[in-house]
Amino acid sequence: MCDANGTAVGTVLLENDRMRVTEWRFAKKGDNTGWHTHAYDYLVIPMFDGILEIDLPDGTRVEASLRDGIPYDRKAGVEHDVINGNDFECAFIEVELLEDAKPT
Mean of the pLDDT values across residues 44-71? Predict the structure, then answer.
């Protein structure tokens, strides 16, 4: 999870043995998750068209352009702070994969 210094609101919508689904809501420009490192592989589903600014451990800030409903995924170990770069409220759904896939 994220540190207590973030201003974005994370609401866990579902959690079980296999996954945790969290809505991250940023009320205004500049709201942020706080620095965190992802312990699990994860999927993000944006609920807006716009940008998020991502602060990285090396001090750089990158801009991610997101499209409503178009998901992306990342592997465990990602460390960053995610910031709303829009002049409007925005949100995304994060799905953390809490267990390895089982063979079929």
Answer: 98
